[in-house]
Write a structure and sequence with these properties.
Layout lengths: L12 H4 L6 E7 L4 E7 L4 E9 L7 E6 L6 E4 L5 H14 L9 E8 L10 E2 L2 H9 L8 H14 L5 E5 L9 H4 L5 H6 L9 H14 L8 E7 L3 E7 L2 E5 L21 H8 L5 H10 L2 H6 L4 H9 L3 H25 L4 E5 H6 L1 H8 L11 H5 L6 E2 L8 E4 L4 H17 L1
Parallel strand pairs: 1-6, 6-8, 9-12, 12-14
Antiparallel strand pairs: 1-2, 2-3, 3-4, 4-5, 7-8, 9-10, 10-11, 13-14
The chain binds adenosine-5'-diphosphate.
Adenosine-5'-diphosphate (ADP) binds next to helix 11 and helix 13.
């Protein structure tokens, strides 16, 4: 194993050009898909990226994009399972001289959704880690089985290579019990491991750190509210680099209004739907996770389409937008109170990075809290972290693009470097 722990930029040129193991493959395995990126950790640059979807169907699709030059390649043909998917990915990478057997590959970093209370940090995977991820399946029935399949497949392909699990929940394990516990019977909660775990942790970690950097400060010196607004959406309160509260809970259903999820709701709605609506548990699960949120309110979950409809005077789209913003404002207020002092609010993910009207509406009317958005700055588009608050604002409001793959690769490489130092 030749992984190197030094940050690349600190390496002299002659060392940088040597064939060190500096590449990390990041795998995000879903039930019928695998997303991947290959990064070079000397500078965090991307060498390749791609996606296999509809695994197990006749029309499986693999899209591979070499990022060092060359066209994207796409194939539509049956890919029976994750093993076949990963072999197909390896074959595509090999065409560009980036195969999984390359000595330059230092490790594979796997996104794992649920690490429970056990995994507070990225972890090199061995049999006991696999067993623990498996033990957590009851609290993550949709995600952990697929993540495990991806890991096992990758381990079979490269048994000698360090494989690292990076958990979506890990960043939130610093939440105090007062934020992590539901106010239900303690014995029942403990027996079924019911507590608030939170998700999108890799993004909240990356964005809160990048926000501190944007302010020119160390993460331990700033308090940040991170608003990760994608199709799934979550907020977090980060004090001095540590998460103290987040909006998702036992599952990603809690919290903000999302593309297709309801977010917060009186749990008695569920009893009502069962008793009065005659709905089954599975039907209610589907209703709240897949047919609620923006799509349930107005029939669209894409914020671009919703804004287009709002601009045309569509009342349903307007109401959906208003409910979305109302919930967002409530969380900003709540986390302001939790933190006591806020240095920055960071908007990230598809909606947060792109939808200026969402940012403007969420901050509107909060001047008394030191919060404001400068409409010219807010209208600027770009890929770089940037401030959108007026120069003299007490609290910075920022747009900070997230990069979960880079964060997984960075955490993976740091760990593999450390363990081989
Ligand atoms: P996820 O990873 O949860 O699937 P993303 O972070 O990629 O989601 O965000 C996807 C969402 O971002 C889309 O559903 C859409 O609502 C929103 N989005 C993407 N681009 C824009 C844009 N230019 N303007 C407004 N919303 C956008």
């Amino acid at each position: 194993m030749t992984a190197h722990s030094s940050p690349a930029t600190a390496l002299p040129d002659e060392v940088r050009s040597a064939p060190l193991a500096t590449r990390v493959l990041v795998l995000n395995s879903g039930s019928s898909s695998v997303k991947y990126q290959l990064l070079d950790m000397r500078d965090g640059s991307r060498l390749a990226a791609g996606l296999v979807e509809r695994i197990g169907e006749e029309t499986s699709r693999l899209k591979h994009t070499p990022l060092t030059g060359g066209e994207s390649r796409e194939q539509i043909a049956p890919i029976a399972d994750h093993e076949a998917a990963l072999k197909a990915v390896a074959a595509e990478l090999a065409k560009d001289g980036l195969g999984l057997d390359s000595p330059e590959l230092a490790a594979i970093g796997h996104r794992v959704v649920h690490g429970g209370q056990t995994f507070t940090d990225p972890t090199v995977i061995d049999d006991s880690v696999l067993a623990e991820i498996e033990r957590l399946i009851p609290v993550a029935p949709l995600h952990n089985p697929a993540n495990l399949t991806g890991i096992r497949t990758a381990m079979a392909l490269r048994p000698d290579l360090p494989q690292v699990a990076v958990f979506d929940t890990a960043f939130h394990t610093t939440m105090p019990e007062s934020a992590a516990r539901y106010a239900i019977d303690v014995k029942t909660a403990d027996e079924h491991r019911i507590r608030r775990y939170g998700f999108h942790g890799t993004s909240h970690a990356y964005v809160s750190r990048a926000t501190a950097e944007l302010l020119g400060k160390a993460p331990q010196d700033v308090n940040v509210i991170v608003l990760h607004l994608g199709n799934g959406a979550s907020a977090s309160a980060v004090r001095g680099g540590r998460c103290v509260d987040t909006s998702m809970g036992l599952t990603p259903l809690e919290g903000l209004v999302m593309g297709t999820r309801s977010g917060d709701m009186d749990p008695a709605v569920i009893f009502h739907l069962m008793r009065v609506g005659g709905m089954s548990t599975d039907e209610i699960d589907t209703l709240l996770n897949k047919k609620s949120g923006l799509i349930g309110l107005c029939g669209d979950n894409d914020m671009r389409e919703i804004r287009r409809r709002v601009d045309e005077g569509d009342e349903r789209a307007r109401l959906a937008f208003d409910i979305y913003i109302h919930r967002l404002k409530k969380y900003i207020g709540a986390y302001y109170a939790v933190l006591g002092r806020v240095d920055a609010i960071a908007f990230t993910a598809g909606v947060g990075e792109n939808a200026a009207p969402v940012r403007e509406a969420a901050i509107a009317g909060l001047e008394e809290l030191g919060l404001a958005v400068d409409s010219d700055l807010n209208a600027v588009r770009g890929d770089e972290p940037r401030l959108i608050s007026p120069r003299d604002a007490r609290v910075a409001v920022a747009v900070v693009p997230t990069d979960e793959e880079l964060e997984i690769a960075t955490q993976t490489y740091a760990l593999v470097g450390e363990s081989n130092a």
